[in-house]
Write a structure and sequence with these properties.
By secondary structure, this protein is an alpha/beta fold. The chain has two domains: 150 residues, Quinone Oxidoreductase, Chain A, domain 1 (Alpha-Beta Complex), CATH 3.90.180; 162 residues, NAD(P)-binding Rossmann-like Domain (Rossmann fold, 3-Layer(aba) Sandwich). The protein is built from twelve helices and 15 strands. The strands form three sheets. Strands 3, 4, 5, 6, 7, 14 and 15 form a seven-stranded mixed sheet that branches. α12 links the parallel β14 and β15. Its EC number is 1.3.1.104. It comes from Quisquiliibacterium transsilvanicum.
């Protein structure tokens, strides 16, 4: 079989190699063998190869935090799973053609789910679902703001929030990205042009946009002039964290889940001390450990059905076979790319 191997940390394009390897052994008790149909290239994968992620697997290793595949073989003592089932493996190391994993960690999907979309179900939709769930007292009519507002995670946040009656504000860096953010389901989209203005410029732009929206909807002005922005999702860190915090209603929460800036999160004491704003971190792996099996199952059952019905989806820029890993990684590094890059096998 083909698999991707990382033998040293560094540039993903230089370090990732596709090698021929023996197929894994037959599944043992409580295990299944899965043929990988598709696995996305996520920012976490690239950061891990560069040595900048929170966890460093021992070298050499095969990357891949998520993917989708079909069960090829079932070991003894496995119930509820069968050969041919479309599944999420639920294990690390999905940049390969075959993998053996514990049946307990496998999520079975509706059979008519698109395998390419299914490959992107675990990380980004799961993060969007769990982060929305972590915002206290979030109710219909409230707002959530997020930067990297045209990203894959953002698109899932927009769609999932809308199902709850929650409105979303997508913050993007370029005016050219506004249309994509709106198309992904954002209620409003604004540009964070802090480089040409003050750190409070985003706060003013958001307040104006929300005020205009609520006025047009015939809603009364927000008490104290503070829009009900209960949560902020921060994928960037650095000063971007502080700019989101300024936009929040008193008592709101900033949830940081990414480090695109490469800088530590920054937030003014004024927000923390006088306005009761909180800054929290989110990592899906940690959430899994605390959520419990039933809650994880509930989340993925809901997300799988939404994906099967087409309610949620993610754009795909291109697909590449495993042996074209260098081209795939080069494409994933291109700026302005509209959609995910997926590594694919044979169905």
């Amino acid at each position: 079989m083909k698999k991707i191997v990382i033998e040293a940390l560094g540039s993903p394009e230089k370090q990732a190699r596709c090698v021929d390897a023996a197929d894994p052994a037959a599944p043992g008790a409580g295990e299944v063998s899965v043929r990988i149909l598709a696995a996305p290239i996520n920012p976490a994968d690239l950061l891990q190869i560069e040595g900048r992620y929170g966890v460093r697997p021992p070298l050499p290793y095969t990357p891949g935090h998520e993917g989708a595949g079909r069960i090829e073989a079932v070991g003894p003592d496995v119930q509820g799973l069968a050969v041919g089932d479309l599944v999420l493996p639920g294990v690390f190391g999905t940049w390969c053609e075959r993998i053996v994993c514990k049946a307990a960690g496998v999520t079975r999907l509706p059979p008519d789910t698109d395998p390419l979309q299914a490959a992107m179900l675990r990380a980004n939709p799961g993060s969007a679902w769990a982060m929305l769930d972590a915002i206290p007292a979030l109710a219909a009519g409230d707002w959530v703001i997020q930067n990297a507002g045209n990203s894959a995670v953002a698109g899932f946040v927009h769609r999932l929030a809308a199902r709850r009656g929650v409105r979303t504000i997508a913050v993007v860096r370029r005016a050219e990205a506004l249309a994509a953010a709106k198309a992904s389901g954002a209620t409003l989209a604004v540009v964070d042009d802090h480089e040409r203005g003050r750190d409070d410029a985003l706060q003013a732009a958001v307040a104006e946009a929300v005020g205009a929206f609520e006025t047009a909807a015939g809603e009364p002005p927000a008490p104290g002039g503070q829009p009900r922005i209960r949560g902020a999702l921060d994928a960037i860190g650095g000063r971007a964290t502080a700019r989101l915090a300024r936009c929040l209603h008193d008592g709101g929460v900033v949830i940081n889940y990414g480090l695109l800036s490469g800088e530590d999160c920054s937030i003014r004491p004024h927000e923390l001390v006088f306005r009761g704003v909180r800054l929290e971190g989110f990592w899906l792996s940690s959430w899994f450990r605390g959520a419990g099996a039933q809650r994880i199952r509930t989340m993925y059952d809901e997300l799988a059905e939404l994906m099967r019905s087409g309610t949620i989806s993610a754009p795909i820029a291109a697909t590449y076979r495993f042996e074209r890993i260098a081209e795939a990684l080069a494409h994933s590094a291109q700026g302005g790319r509209d959609g995910k890059i997926l590594l694919v096998g044979e169905d």
